[in-house]
Amino acid sequence: MAPIRWAQPRACAKWTQTLRASCSARARSYATAQTSRGGRPFRLAIIGSGPAGFYTAYRAMSRIQDAKVDMYEALPVPYGLVRFGVAPDHPEVKNCQEKFEEVASSPNFTFVGNVSVGTPSDHPDGCTVPLASILRHYNAVVFSYGAAKDRTLGIPGESSLKGIYSAREFVGWYNGLPEHADLAPDLTQGDEAVVIGQGNVALDVARMLLEDVDVLRKSDIAEHAIETLSKSKIRRVHIVGRRGPMQAAFTIKEARELMKLPDVAFHPIDQSLIPADPKTLPRAPRRLMDILLKGSPTPPSSSSTSTSTSTATKSWSLDFLLTPQAFHPCAADPARVGSTTFERTALSSPFDPHAYALGTAQTVSLPSRAVFRSIGYRSAPLPEFAALGIPFNERWGVISNDGGGGGGGRVQHEERTAGAAMAYGRFPGLYCAGWVKRGPTGVIASTMEDAFATADAISRDWGSGDVPFLNPDGEGGEAAGWDGVRRETGVGRARVVDWDGWRRIDRAERERGRLVGKEREKFTRTADMLAVLG
Amino acid sequence: MSTPRLLAQTLPGLRLAPRRAAGAIAQHARCYTKPSASPAPAAISPCSRPAARHARWSSPFQRRAFSASPAVSHGHVETPKAGEELYVTFIDKEGMEHKIAVSKGANLLDIAQAHDLEMEGACGGSCACSTCHVIVLDQEYYDKMPEPDDDENDMLDLAFGLQETSRLGCQVHMTPELDGLRVKLPSMTRNLQSSDFK
Ligand SMILES: Cc1cc2nc3c(=O)[nH]c(=O)nc-3n(C[C@H](O)[C@H](O)[C@H](O)COP(=O)(O)OP(=O)(O)OC[C@H]3O[C@@H](n4cnc5c(N)ncnc54)[C@H](O)[C@@H]3O)c2cc1C
Ligand SMILES: NC(=O)c1ccc[n+]([C@@H]2O[C@H](COP(=O)([O-])OP(=O)(O)OC[C@H]3O[C@@H](n4cnc5c(N)ncnc54)[C@H](OP(=O)(O)O)[C@@H]3O)[C@@H](O)[C@H]2O)c1
Ligand code: FES
Question: Each residue's pLDDT tens digit in chain B (198 positions)?
């Protein structure tokens, strides 16, 4: 078996820095050239087929001569959050899939679908291969497995009461993610919903609750979601944040979209939270504050400024300066949430985008039998990391890496030495990209830039000739890649989905969609996806 | 115990590379700085594809596989008729100039992609991603363009290195008034911060 070589940790922060600074100067000279190690093929395993995985593959294959990429994906279908996160009414965002198809059409690219790496597959039809086996058959590995867990609030009632959904589950459910196909959220218990958090995911959740079901019907939304949403009684959505509008995480396009929903009214915001003269603000916050101040063309029917002729059938508000404290059971059904109490906060400096929220001890209660917690996703270490000594920063929820500020995503172990200097232990051949490198924020464009930075680091390291990689002297000078892993682990070929297999599933979904007048009708069970392949 | 050693124990057959001496690293660091950081000389290639084109993908086989993909709908621009050429110059991230002859109506994203300049266009020109951000170099030309609409401005608000004359390439169409336009592709990697790109 091909041995793996690891370098020793280097106890010199200074060198790492110098190296990094000078690398960026060098980067320019690589922009169009390809790197190679004496013509030897470069075997790269990528774990996860979201945008981070695909954009890393694309860039690595264009930068490194004879790079062969095997992309492992736990689900039978590719694209990660582009398929299971991006809202169904945003089909244009999914156009990046065209680029991914282009990448996958390269003869040097292999899709290894339905194979989970380093953690048991979460569905009964899936295969699992140990990370240790991957490490034995490649020159380098990129972790781009995203963030499949939730941040939690850790407040009373959160895990015990029915009717509290994490945005991740809810989004996965309406997008047909097999893991949450059975969520069956109950939207018929009352007419109010509370969404906790004010990021773009919170706005997506709110839009799904407020938008006309007939608009959604034509999208690739899961059929079970259309059924549930068409019976929804929710008419009023509170999107609750612990800070103010100047600190909100959502972006202008998504806010404008909600404002424009026909017959949906926005309850005016408290103007004292916006600087008296917004014209003096920088461009982006100025334009956002303008939208919030302007509100929706449809006035809320109960608002004092409205006439009795308001056409509003549903409404929403941004409720600022409230931090969640506890969920309380509903009187009629003690197993279900009936209200949420929030502590009112005050900002350290109301118009500073980095202001923090301080408690005021004053509380506010919002009644609602449907609560959506949208305070962010979270990455977790693969279970094998502990045994292999691969460092994971629990606090930031990322694989420890040198990636700060657009860096290379080289996995590294940090340790404070006796003299208080930082010591870095490098893990040759191990890299990360996307949400597991940077944390669960950023749109596809920023994930792409970040993946490019990782691929550029890999190509620089490989091209330098003396940065160590895994398996430097594999059989015949070449690591065996997926063939080696398959031989070693005995994973049955039958259940592995290759790119052609995915294209057949894709065609079957489009055909199902055509029959019901939709772009696509997704399979929401892995068994149904695999059944297409016979 | 150092982490890689732990790994060595876990993986049978794992060998540790000999420890690098600090001197060797220093040498290594110096050799990285060798290529000068002075700006590359401007290469003007009117009406022709930049030389970079063939260098990006190693084998012609790959290129074929890529350009044959039916899914790729963008990047197609018509060759201008003789005498009707409009010129646009792109200044890429390395400071190289690419002067391209195009026909009326073509948008900057399609032009850039057809000439293999580094512009992603992740949303395929639907004004939903800002990866086609360009900076117009002359205010005079910027003023000749129809103003960006709300959708374009909303995406520009998220673009890296936004300037007064920033536009989304997919939304700018060539017209005779724009003949001689010069645009710069912003260098993104330097100011990548998730906080300014939510
Ligand atoms: C609800 C939501 C909506 C969004 N909407 C937009 C939008 O409209 N526009 C926009 O620009 N951005 C949007 N984003 C952000 C965008 O989706 C992310 O920036 C991007 O998907 C992150 O990419 P990634 O590759 O790091 O992770 P992911 O996309 O999560 O990909 C990770 C992949 O790894 C796989 N995987 C996990 N574990 C394993 C394992 N052990 N073995 C093998 N495979 C594994 C997963 O199944 C998944 O396919 C949205 C995000 C969310 C959550
Ligand atoms: N259309 C799109 O472009 C689109 C759509 C969806 C998602 N995305 C992107 O995907 C990324 C993830 O989105 P996201 O909404 O999950 O994350 P996010 O943008 O980080 O927002 C998280 C929200 O949760 C709040 N929060 C966090 N911890 C909290 C706590 N303990 N108590 C109360 N509130 C808490 C945050 O408030 P504080 O600010 O006070 O911490 C913030 O309002 C973002 O970059 C987003 O832009 C983009
Ligand atoms: S290509 Fe996405 S905004 Fe222009």
Answer: 333 333 444 343 333 232 222 222 222 222 222 222 333 333 333 333 333 322 232 222 233 223 222 323 345 778 888 888 999 999 998 899 999 999 999 999 999 999 999 999 999 999 999 999 999 999 999 999 999 999 999 999 999 889 999 999 999 999 999 999 999 999 754 333 333 334
Residue A421 and residue A369 share a domain: no
Does A464 sit within 8 Å of B124, measured CB to CB? Answer: no
The answer on A99 and A203 residing in a single domain is: no
Question: Is some CB atom of chain A closer than 8 A to the CB atom of B153?
Answer: yes
Q: What is the domain-level CATH number for residue A341?
A: 3.50.50.60
A504 has a pLDDT exceeding 70: yes
CB B57 within 8 A of CB B69: no
Domain shared by A138 and A51, yes or no: yes
Q: Is the domain of A234 the same as that of A346? A: yes
State whether A140 and A166 are in the same domain. no
pTM for the predicted model, two decimal places: 0.87
- In this prediction, residue A475 carries a pLDDT of 56
Q: How far, in Å, is the centroid of ligand 2 from the Cα of A377?
A: 8
Instruction: State yes or no: A237 annotated in a binding site.
Output: no
Task: From A86, A201, A203, A385, give the residue whose CB has the most ligand 1 atoms within 8 Å, as the site to mutate.
Answer: A86
The helix or strand, by DSSP H or E, that contains position A339, with its residue range, turns out to be strand A337-347
Regarding whether A264 and A224 lie in a shared domain, the answer is yes
| pLDDT tens profile A351-385 | 999 999 999 999 999 999 999 999 999 999 999 99
The SS3 assignment for A437 reads: helix
CB-CB under 8 Å, A22 with B33: yes
Q: How far is the CA of B155 from the centre of ligand 3 (A)?
A: 9
Q: Is A468 on the interface with B (CB under 8 A)?
A: yes
- Please name the residue of chain A whose CA is at the shortest distance from the CA of residue B197: A442
* CB A292, CB A247: distance < 8 Å: no
Question: Which ligand is closest in space to the CA of residue A256?
Answer: 2
Whether residue A107 and residue B71 make contact (CB cut-off 8 A), yes or no, is no
Number of domains in chain A: 2
Distance CA(B198)–CA(A200), nearest Å, equals 8
| Residue A294 touches chain B, beta carbons under 8 Å | no
> Pairing mode, if any, of strands A398-399 and A392-393?
antiparallel
Give the residue numbers spanning the domain of A296: 150-377
Closest ligand 3 atom, residue B168 Cα: 4
For A170-201, how does the pLDDT look when each residue is reduced to its tens digit (9 = 90+)?
Answer: 999 999 999 999 999 999 999 999 999 999 99
Cβ-contact A318, A198 below 8 angstroms? yes
* Domain assignment of residue A26, yes or no: no
Least confident window among A129-143, A330-344, A424-438, B49-63? B49-63
Task: Measure in Å the smallest separation between the Cα of B7 and chain A Cα atoms.
Answer: 5
What's the rounded Cα separation, in Å, for the pair B66 and A119?
33
Domain boundary among A351, A377, A403: A377
Beta strands in A382-483, from DSSP E residues, in sequence order: 392-393, 398-399, 410-416, 422-432
Q: Per the annotation, does A52 bind a ligand?
A: yes
CA distances, B64 to each of A281, B59, B69, B111 (Å): 50, 9, 9, 20
Determine if ligand 2 sits within 6 Å of the CB of residue A153: yes
Q: Under an 8 A CB cutoff, do B69 and A102 touch?
A: yes
Task: Give residue A405's pLDDT band: very low, low, confident or very high (50, 70, 90).
Answer: low
Whether residue A93 lies inside any domain: the answer is yes
Q: What is the DSSP letter of A60?
A: H
**Is B120 an 8 Å CB contact of chain A?**
yes
Question: Number of Cβ pairs closer than 8 Å across A and B?
Answer: 221
A370 and A389 housed in the same domain: no
How far is residue B145's CA from residue B156's CA, in Å, rounded to a whole number?
16
A35 DSSP assignment? B
pLDDT tier at A33 (50, 70, 90 boundaries)?
low
B123 → chain A, closest CA residue: A95
**What residue ranges define each of the domains in chain B, with the CATH number in brackets?**
3-187 (3.10.20.30)
> Is A316 assigned to a binding site?
no
* A252, part of any domain: yes
